[in-house]
Structures are given as C-alpha cells and as structure tokens.
Write a structure and sequence with these properties.
- The chain is mostly helical and 206 residues long.
- It is built from 6 helices and no strands.
- α2 runs antiparallel to α5 and α3 runs antiparallel to α4.
- The termini are far apart.
Amino acid sequence: MNVSRDAGERVAGPPGTVAAGRHILEGRRHVATGRATAFRAAVFGINDGLVSNTALILGVGGATDDSGFVLLAGAAGLIAGSLSMAAGEYLSVRSQIEMLENQLAREELEIGPGDVDSPFAAAISSFLSFAVGAAVPLFPFALTGGTAALAAGASLALLALFLAGAAASLFTGRGPVFSGLRMAAIGGAAAAVTHAVGRLFGVAIG
C-alpha cells in the first residue's frame, strides 16, 4: 500500500500542482484565443475597408473625371468608415462584457468579462485595420489622377482582397487560393456595380 500510495503521489504531484498546471494551460489558451480574435478582426476589418472604399472611389470616379473630388470622397470614406467601425466594435465588445457581468450574478460560466478583449483595444484595432484597407484604392490618387489612378486603385484593391481572403482561410478551413479568389470576385463585383451606377449617374446629371 505504501508503494501504491507513493506512486499515486508521484503521479498527482504535490498539492496544488494540478490546479496550477490547469491555470497555466487556461491562461495560455486565453492568450492564444485573444491573439486569434485580434488577427481575425484585423483581417476582416481590412476587407471591409477595401470593399467599401473601393466601391465608393470607383462609383464617384464613374460619375466624374475630377480626380480631386474622387480623392476627397475617398478620404472622407476612409475617415467616416474607420470611425464607424471603431464605434461599432467598442459598443459590441462593451455590450458583451456587460452581458457576461450580468450573467455571472446568476450562473457560473467557463468564461468571464476578463476573457473578452478590451473595448478600447477592439475599437483601435478596427479603426486601424479599416483605415489600412480603405487607403489601398486611394493611394494612386495621391500620385496621379484620372483613369490611370482609377485603374491602379482597382488593381491594388483586387490584389489586397485576394491576400485578405487567403489570410481569412486560416479561420474558415477553405483553401487560401479559393478564399482569395472568392473575396476578390465578390469585392470586385460590388465595386464594378457601383462604378456602373456612378457612370449612369454622371451621364444623367451631365
């Protein structure tokens, strides 16, 4: 019995070892989950910025040949969209924390408010990722103008959409090429439709 007891103690370890190990593993899991969540939010934030501002720029570019006006509209879209994303993400995370705090008074959960990302960190991450995506189709207009800037912006946006889609495959389980082509096709179609509507509007008011 002594041998059996000693063996059991060696397996179980000193008092508190199992609990300490569990807490370490839990901490690592939360850190890994937090990093994955932040990366996922950044990927989709960039995608939102790319699609919305590319569509805006191509739509305005289809309605007018004034590159200065297109640049102004794109810059306004970048700022407005980034602020909107930041505000929405802050409110979403803040509401999630408040919901968890409310539930913890009534039931024991596996997670708590501390396991959720900071609302401020989520807002800043969304603002920056959206701004990066929205700046891609706008960049050529800082160097040139006209059809050349519009074509360059659309090309850069399609490439960036493909890369964002390939990165998103880490979370969807789809192949990177398939995910990249799908995102580029959907974003490109949205931008093409907006450009066509812009051209029709430009002809109508012209």
